[in-house]
Write a structure and sequence with these properties.
- The protein is mainly alpha-helical and 214 residues long.
- It contains 11 helices and no strands.
- It is globular and about 40 Å long.
- It has one domain.
Length: 214
């Protein structure tokens, strides 16, 4: 539509944010199992999302596009093969204990990336949760949607303040995002966990290949 990459990315954040909220609501039952993790993860997500958004609005379009394939490759590979690292990373049960410091630092870095560019952010969060030792993909998805809503929400404030939103296409995409966000989450909860994980892996590598092709 002739919108520059930086403005397009900020507008996509605006368009998909309500859909992310509806997805988080659809996963409310699964989120309950890890609710004690929400406060520390949300705090670092809020700070990181704001930093990433402020960096984006000060970045050129060429620089914005240059690093994306490699970031996507890292995210896809980590989620696909992360389970093999669990014996070294240490097990973790979401209903007990606290997160290791490296997981909070990792989420902070992911939130900066998410505020800067949303593509693949969810995959990176799922990868981190896998390395921590979480195994329930539905619980992981629910937590991911809440954290995404937090960091994208603060990023959106920064984008609006800097006039980085293309409003007309943004509102059109938003309507589809609200319906798709809730419907997609509802359908995913009814599918076998192994199939959901396989679907995520296939999509991750397809997006990675697309960015390298571009």
């Amino acid at each position: 539509m002739g919108i520059t990459p930086v403005i397009a990315n900020a507008s996509a954040t605006f368009a998909t944010w309500p859909g992310g909220l509806s997805s988080a609501f659809a996963y409310r039952r699964e989120i309950g199992a890890s609710r004690h993790l929400l406060l520390p993860l949300s705090a670092v997500s809020l700070a990181g999302g704001l930093i990433g958004a402020l960096v984006l609005v000060r970045t050129s379009d060429a620089s914005f596009l240059r690093a994306l394939p490699w970031l996507m490759l890292l995210a896809a590979a980590t989620f696909t093969f992360g389970a093999k690292l669990l014996p070294r990373a240490g097990g973790f049960h979401s209903q007990e204990g606290s997160l290791p410091l490296w997981a909070l630092v990792g989420q902070f870095a992911i939130a900066i990336y998410g505020g800067f560019f949303g593509g693949g952010m969810g995959m990176m969060m799922l990868a981190t949760m896998t390395l921590v030792g979480m195994t329930d993909i539905h619980e992981m998805n629910g937590l991911k949607h809440v954290l995404a809503a937090v960091l994208n929400g603060i990023a959106l404030v920064a984008f609006i303040a800097n006039g980085a939103i293309a409003w007309q296409p943004g509102f059109t995409m938003m309507a589809g995002g609200i319906v798709g966000g809730y419907a997609g989450a509802t359908i995913a909860r009814l599918i076998d966990r192994r199939h959901v994980r396989l679907f995520v892996i296939v999509v991750a590598w397809a997006i990675t290949a697309y960015f390298f092709w571009r």
